[in-house]
Amino acid sequence: MAEPDGVRLQKVLSQAGIASRRVAEKMIRDGRVEVDDRVVTELGTRVDPAVSVIRVDGARVTLDDTLVHLAINKPKGMHSTMSDDRGRPCIGDLVEHRVRGNKKLFHVGRLDADTEGLMLLTNDGELAHRLMHPSFEVPKTYLATVLGTVPRGLGRELRNGVELDDGPARVDDFAVVDKVPGKTLVRVTLHEGRKRIVRRMLAAVGYPVQELVRTEIGTVALGDQRPGSIRVLTQKELGELYKAVGL
Predict the structure, then answer these.
(1) Catalytic residue chosen out of the listed positions 48, 93, 112, 172
(2) Which helix (H) or strand (E) covers residue 174, if one does?
(3) In the record, which residues are listed under signal peptide (predicted)?
(4) Can you state the angle between helices 235-244 and 125-132, rounded to 10 degrees?
């Protein structure tokens, strides 16, 4: 861990964009930094960035600059695939000219063509696998516009579970965000990954979805990202994703 030809820990943290070197030194002194599952408080500690697993406040710091982690706002009408043999617009078209080779990018959390919103793209296969696996229960949040006025007890009904043709499904959280004549905007959070699950659940309780946007995956939020735009995940977002799936 402390090879003479290693790199000073505070320099590694600074180069990874975690904090300035001075702030990184304080983090180390305060016991907030772990190297290979051991808290390090010595400022002179040297590490091998290619081998060492470094965490700040329990969240892993990504040091491998060959890894790509992107947030994309998939526009409505676009397919959630890297290529389409029928020539339909797909997310591969968005990244083809903007990312250095998209051949090994995995898409996390595919959306149907008529749904807009947040998807993640990464060439970290293990992270992608865990984010998609239901056992890690990474929550996803959607804004749905439904027909009609939603009654007070609908959230409780959805939290208790709705019977669908492929088994029961339940939401983790539900809230009414806004009401306009004839329509209601609701926020739905769940960790289910079944196809068209939000649309099917709301249709099952009598409120067909007119528009649907995914706004969050775990702690990564769409924010004001425009449809069709791509951005690189921050170290903080990335660390929290790794933490959520035990990496």
Answers:
(1) 112
(2) strand 173-180
(3) none
(4) 60
Indicate which CATH number applies to the domain containing 238: 3.30.70.580
Domain shared by 41 and 80, yes or no: no
> Does any domain span residue 177?
yes
State yes or no: is 172 an active-site residue.
no
Long-range contacts, stretch 193-200, CB < 8 angstroms, 24+ apart:
193/109, 193/132, 193/134, 193/140, 194/166, 194/169, 195/112, 196/112, 197/169, 198/142, 198/144, 199/112, 199/115, 200/164, 200/169
Q: Which domain holds residue 15?
A: 7-61
| Residue 33 lies inside a defined structural domain of this protein | yes
**Measured distance CA(181)–CA(188) in Å, rounded:** 21
49-71 confidence digits (pLDDT tens):
778 888 888 888 877 777 888 99
Q: Are residues 212 and 229 in the same domain?
A: no
Residue 87 within a domain: yes
Check residue 90 and report its DSSP letter.
B
Q: What is the pLDDT of residue 99?
A: 64
Q: Dump pLDDT digits (tens) for 155-207.
A: 999 999 999 999 999 999 999 999 989 999 999 999 887 889 999 999 999 99
DSSP state of 79: B
pTM beyond 0.85, yes or no: no
Give the CATH number, domain containing residue 186: 3.30.70.1560
